[in-house]
């Protein structure tokens, strides 16, 4: 009772802040937590007439079907490989870019590079994949014309399973590195210039200053962003994988998200695809908790 | 900042599904099967036109094709409304996003009054048996004399429209021209053949030689080796390379099922199919097949073929792919090639009759109005106009009473010209033979008739063709599960073997893998379906 009163008093004092917070809370309740109720169809034989609550329970049948399916190991392997590859290549690039940009003395050149590097962020995925098809075409693509001009044989990049993941990851890097560097630049800007000055007087080189001042300065930001990335590890860009997919590269391009889309929304097997999606989410959730705990122990930075 | 909660909470898609399904619980428990039982009101006329005295609106979903204009603006649609006094509220969804939107409609229970073209057989059976789509047979008998007459005169039409439980949940499309018996015409650049002094190839061997000559001997005479020998589509019936397998004795390399002595046979595991793959690989290895065959779509293919710099392509008529000028001046049809063992087959694909062009949902308050609307579309003059455009601007009557198409203005694509004013082949139109006989063929039809005569003797006979039929819900579900894995694997291996070769070496592993995926059950279900169908006849 007492605590409730204290709580009420607190609200009374800061009511404007709570009012500002309200839309966000409502958003999460309605659009993020509310739909969780639909998860139950993963354990049901959903039919549209009976609705979510009316459909009969069937236990883990859909999960068993997925685990036993021919596709299971390929899907899991592709999803994990693509995620890790994307994380290992994609995560450091914006940091390096930000560190380099931060060292640039020439203000106008710095701004120019920054603008050029984050412009691709505004290209839609559909257009990006379209560009890839054009540039990498075996008949008329720019890259293959260069290869042929140097006496090589044209490579049909978009159709080779072994190229799919590299193309996927590096096109994402091209598109998002500049944008991702912004947050690190902000963190770098908050580092006390006095430290740099002192280091310079002590005779530290640029590289040494990056290593001993800049990097430790933005380390908390890096760790938080890394954990956030881990949080969406298993949710690889669905749109892009789907758009880049074809019969020839399906071996490495079929990931859990594209499979869920195909069976669920195109094939109308709602229960089954919900089960697959849920499996994906649970794994992801476990990885997130694990990393958060690890990070708290090692670096004392964590999400909660 | 919020991303982790979101993703960790639930996969993005599951969330999306969940949101839309939320709505289902409010609507979904509604037990009333719609207005099927309700008595038609005073407003409704059981015979004669208009169908309703006071204007009524029916909300219909339709799959919008690339050639369609705005349905509300179409002259023929307005004429239909004038005649029937029923206003159709069109929800036109483009083909590429159709399946997704349609599935969400059913899952959320937010249904229209009915569907024109767009549902697939699985939907029709599943939602029909669940009561979301109404059985139409009584309505047809009571209110639809035109459709009833077709069903009486053409029992095959009625049979193809009937579900295994005996109900009719969807009306088909029926246009009985014989030239709909096969899909692709194999077109070759005759000018190039003449420039090189070659004849139209007759065997697979000669075909290979001709393509090689196209590639290497500069048939367009510009001094550069810029010719494309051939371009196709992979995993598509129209513009695909699947007819070529007939020269090796494979009956249907597209749909994979055939009938031999009453037994269902799966073509994808036959040596004949493998021989075809090896042949295509030989072509590919010599650079005679466009590598983009495996990734391009119809528009991208047409962009290449319309330049006229392609030696060989497969097409329904070639009008879309080449344009009439190129087609008439430079290209001719290649008769079915003779294979090394003397096989000479052309894949059958019977499109005279197509399922699922009209369904009524349980949400429809006046199903009797809807069925009369479908019947009104099948009045002789109305039908041809809804299909081919209005009299005056698009059609005219000749002196001997035939209906003749008006040429589109110069530079306008014939299909788009029609699609501005007519819904084309997206409505439940069923032609009796005497009405087809009224049509004077237009240019595409004339080409098609001419091509059909060439292929006719070689088209796979009807008794070897897996017939058009509905499959009951339980089997459909099982098939959906099996088919995803099996067909995806087959297409993947097909593409791989054509590009890299190795079909012979990997064949046994391939058969074993298909076995693991449940191929036997997949075939057995088709056998059961076929047996049921035969015993019902």
UniProtKB/TrEMBL annotation, chain A:
Entry's transmembrane regions: 12-30, 82-101, 122-147, 167-191, 212-234, 270-291
Membrane topology value: Multi-pass membrane protein
Keywords carried by this UniProt record: Cell membrane, Membrane, Transmembrane, Transmembrane helix, Transport
CDD domains for this protein: TM_PBP2
Stored Pfam families: BPD_transp_1
GO biological process: transmembrane transport
Compartments in which it is found: Cell membrane
Domain (ABC transmembrane type-1): residue spans on this chain: 76-291
An annotated GO cellular component: plasma membrane
Primary location group: membrane
Claim: Repressor is one of the keywords in the record: no
InterPro entries to which the protein is assigned, alphabetical: MetI-like (IPR000515), MetI-like_sf (IPR035906), UgpAE/MalFG_permease (IPR050809)
Family recorded in the similarity comment: Belongs to the binding-protein-dependent transport system permease family.
Protein name: Sugar ABC transporter permease
Organism, scientific name: Paenibacillus sabuli
TrEMBL record, chain B:
Top-rank taxon, per record: Bacteria
PROSITE patterns in the record: PROKAR_LIPOPROTEIN
Signal peptide positions (record): 1-23
One of the Pfam families matching this protein, by short name: SBP_bac_1
Keywords for the protein's UniProt record, in alphabetical order: Cell membrane, Lipoprotein, Membrane, Palmitate, Signal
Protein name: Extracellular solute-binding protein
The species this protein was found in: Paenibacillus sabuli
